[in-house]
Amino acid sequence: VSVGVCISSRRSGLSRALRCDRALNPAMSDASTTPAEAAPAATDSVGRSTSARYNETLSSRTMCAYGFFRLPISGYDLTVRPARTAVYIEALNQSILTHAMIVSCCKSVDFLLGFLVGTTSDNVSTRWGRRKPWVVVCFPFAIVSMFLLVTPFPFSGDAVFSDSDDFPCGEIEPDSATACPALEQCLVEMIANGTLPAHNVSSVESSNPPAPAALSVWFALFYFAYYFFSWTCTMIPYDALGMELTSDYSKRVSLFSVRVVFQFLGYAVPNAVGLVLSNIFPTNIIAVYAYTALVLGIVSLAALLVLGFGVSERPEAKTGQGNEVPAVVAVRRALCNWPYCIYLFIKFPISLVSLLPVNLMSFFLRYGMKMEDWASLYFTLVLVILFASLLGTPLVWYLTRRFGKREVLMYVSGACCPFFFAFFFVPPQSFPTAVIYIAGVFVGLLTVVMFVVLDSMLADIIDYDALHTGKRSEGVYTVAETNLQQFIEVIGGVVPLLLMSAVGFENNGGCECGCGVACDEAYMRWKCPGDIGYSCDGQSTFDSPPLFGEVGRQAPCVDQGSDAVVWIIRAFLFALSGVCLLLVCLGAKIYPITKAAHSAILDATESLAAGGEATDPLTGKAVVRSAASHAQLRREHFSARELSLSSHWLKTQLSGRLLLWLGAFIAILAGMAASGGEARQYIVAIGAICCSALFVLVPWDAARLQVLLKMSRAERAVGPSAEEKDNSARS
């Protein structure tokens, strides 16, 4: 009977005290347990709920509507990352240094914009909510940007719709069953009269010159637009929406498990489509990604409609009243949340582990394992990862609910760690395909743990922040999450490329075409200096033997001139992943919020909302919230130590720091402008990475200096409050 009353009361939205305490206390009168007499949830002056518990019976319909939107986003992610290298570097011959420079510059600018989007999402509320308007307005721009990014049609239109009839012997259909003798005879004649080069000619006139500057402009424009509209303006509000859909510890695990299922289905879509298209266009990787992008665009529109009509935000998000907390204060509060700092310590390495295989596995298959047909194995491997992830999701969901979040995180990471170190020492050319698939299974399990366990942990951390601040700041926490992902993209996507270029990496092994890059002539498998692979089925299969030269020779496009290139790929792909997993185990070991601690956090929050007192379950200290006044918000721009300084010294300190950041920024720009030759691209790429930090530090100290100049002596004369001292101690 007690359980039935609790469930019924939860569905009717009664306050926690009336829905469970009275049902479980037989000493209370029957009149006191009548649902009709229960008081509604407490609200503040603008109608926002002050209850820490909300929507604890989240419906499966809402969870699926929310999770389905992750499907196209995941498809975009797993299309754009490999397409960057396969389309721009390998197929269109963009310099790897230019590519790395553009990526780092775009990420650096977007790093700052993310903070503005997150704090604005928290502080601005509309009658449609705080999060969904961002998604509805910005996601259509993300769809267009993604399509134009992976399909640079002004530079690759002929590759998508290729026709080789205009070339010598092009009128003969390349079919070994019927026309191979005629084609071979035609090629012999064309080589003899000098129309075509011999298969072993030392130098080949290239029809694939270095990429024009316009291609770099195109890539920079749509790469920045894609990440700004999708990951910054769409994913930050979308992730924040998920954090505030329910407060229940276990329901959050279920919500993010459902989202993970759709996420991995989204990863499967471009790879399943790519696997089919790679058989239709075996030597034309540009066409594969072009048609994949078209499929994802259609799915994206359906997902946007489902999210818009199937998910409702919390009622208090539609009151038109936001947090009204300045960005600096919101970030300072987050940094004082020490469980969140531990979370970031975990999130950085495990995100790097999930990113590196996507960015580097195609290089490893081609140049490490010497696979000409690398694309088919790559797409198959990703499908194995996704299949393992889908099977692992219910297992991780059960283990997390049974044993706890940090325990699952620690033991799964610890179990996978030794295998990555072992993979590093296996010679690439003797790397069994089965071992590749085993590594894919580990990556799949780790990815499930990252998205199921870590996302639900972040929601618990936001509850802990609400205990100390009285504000819901999902946007601030998810922007740090997204910006961290952006920074990891620089570390995992740019740094390896820079190092590979420094030791002599050559696009497509120095070949004009082959190994997935379509040759203009349908009868060529590859076209490299010193070796041209004429064959009857050059454009349709990798098994067609060369017509001239050694029949079983290896395609030159799988070779790099320096073994150091392969060592760098192996070091980042396996050794660095093993180190990262060790760090994850360490962070999980000290993570403090368990299920019991989370319940105590919600109890303490409700006690404060009811006008009582509360103790921090993690520290055992009394919780003292700062007064919600403009004067107090101005004070929270500074630490207790800074407030103890005189006004003159604090102004001098902030002005000096601001001048230091500006000077460093100017020096970096001057260094990038003064550099020349090939070294310039290295300097620009590294300088852009450094600027990503300066893009945050300059406005940070500028905003604080501006607030300091507006503060009165009376505001600064007040000694640090108990909350400020506690924040400094926790920080």
Distance between the termini: 47 Å
The whole-angstrom Rg is 29 Å
| Strand arrangement across the biggest beta sheet | 1-2
The assembly state of the depicted protein chains is single chain
What series of H and E elements makes up the topology?
HHHHHHHHHHHHHHHHHHEEHHHHHHHH
Care to count the β-strands? 2
Mind describing the biggest β-sheet?
2 strands, antiparallel
Q: Count the DSSP helices.
A: 26
Mean pLDDT: 79
The class by helix and strand makeup works out as mainly alpha
- Shape call: globular
Unreliable parts:
1-50, 159-164
Beta strand %: under 5%
Portion of residues within helices: 55-70%
Would you kindly provide a written description of the structure presented here, covering whatever features stand out?
The structure is a single chain. The chain has 731 residues and is mainly α. The protein contains 26 helices and two strands. Helix 9 (213-243) packs antiparallel against helix 17 and helix 14 (374-403) packs across helix 16 (433-469).
